[in-house]
Amino acid sequence: MLRVQLRKRRGDFSLEVDFHAPVPGVTALFGRSGCGKSTLISLIAGLLSPDEGRVQIGEDVLVDSERQYELDARHRRIGVVFQDARLFPHFSVLGNLQYGARRLPRGAPTPIGFDDVVSMLGLGAMLRRRPQELSGGEKQRVALGRALLGQPRLLLLDEPLASLDLARREDVLPYLEKLRDALAIPIVYVSHQFDEVLRLATRVVLLDGGRVLADGDLAAVSRHPALREIVGPDAVGAVMAGVVERMDAAGLTVVRVGDAEFVIDEPATPGQRIQIQVLARDVIVAAARPAGLSVRNVVSARVVSVTPDVGRAVLVELDIGRTATLLARITSRAAQELGLSADVQVWALIKAVSLRGHVFSAPAR
Amino acid sequence: MLSPAETEALTLSLSVAARSVLFNLPIAILVAWLLARARFAGRTVFDAFVHLPLVLPPVVVGYLLLVLFGIRGPIGGWLYQNFGIQLAFTSTGAALATAVMSFPLVVRSIRISLEAMDRGLEDAAKTLGAGAVDRFFSITLPLITPGILAGAVTAFAAGLGEFGAVITFAANIPGETRTLPLALYTALQTPDGDALAARLALISFALGLAGLLVAELLSRRIRRTLGR
Description:
The complex is a heterodimer. Helices cover 21% and strands 36% of the residues of chain A.
């Protein structure tokens, strides 16, 4: 487990965080620009000294200000992938990849093999090339490979996709998913893009103004009011962690979330863990179970709360059993007509095609 | 094509300038690094001190060298007694005087490329396990090569023409310290030396032009390998 307790003041900005990240698995540090994410990464990597605090990976203490102890960055064995890749321009791709490997202590174990990294990240064809001949996505893959070959015990990814356009992100994201599922190394992933978090992480640390607002499973943090403000009204929704149950006769995927089942159009195999995002604007609330609709997902739910939302809308929090929750955005007029208030039983309707699922090949815990 | 005296002055100039660059580089890299990276008390004064040769009359620099490195000077005396090395009135001394004069130019050039360099690359190297000395030689030094070379070429070209400090510290000894400008000066002092002076001026001119062209080609090639 990675445990981080740090305080750092820089001019007007102060960072004060306390969180932990499970090992292995992906923990996202999520927040808008300027919330202290990159400062936090520098502190964990040892490129910046905290005013006070403690950082620990498993039993190994990296920073302990009470004992005036701070392990030098070069001995931390923390792989960092920076937003701007920071490949060495005077080395070839091969030279970059070998930089960390060549500096390992004599006889250090090398569980991550060169050939594995090259094939896993698809670097074979570019080993002789120079960084400046690579596309942005290729650069980030090389940076990932370089970090991995330093045999890290923790991987810090500092907005690795932020400098890429949407199309180029797809050059990197599938590789990140592959790494997450294939390696036992814990990953801390910094991002201000919620869809990346949704796709890669199972745990989220929500940061704002240098403070941790929420810290926990993505499903739990996705309901946090502060998250709604950061992602903006169009992306407000709930995230549910489920398990793929079976494929139905029509070839759609049936996912179990708590007591409920959801049908989703996303290829998967039974037993896989899957994270489903349900946007609040895609959820219809019905007072009685409807018939004769095209909608695939009709779930029994209990109203938890009705809170004002943007414009004339309200946000209805729905409990669908075993702590699984949905958010529905409807007009306040509709809420009045349905008589929605806490503990009213309703039905939640969601089209299968408006659900977005992200499959995790290996159990993330 | 060239008379023996002309050849002598030319090769001596080249040799003095080349040796001045060799004296310069290691110290200039260190000083540039201190000025660009280190934070210490008296840094501003140190910076000014480094730039002094730019503003002092060269004769003053030559005189100070004579005081320090002359055979009875504190450093020159020590060198002579312990190692038998004499700097004043020798071609090595001429190279030293030339080096001191061009030192600020070299420091400035290296310092600019140090300050322009992306320090994030050093951070990246650090997270990959490289120590301070390792980082300097594997990352910093290769990346500031353009600045070092530009400084070296400038210093070499300027060194070919150093006059005041050389004649003061190393005198005007044929075959030992009589470089091109000193030979030209001597020719001008000699009756009927006009033709020789003109030829020497022409040689200096050609040499300077060639030096600038070589510098440009070199820096282009380096930029290409560094991808900038």
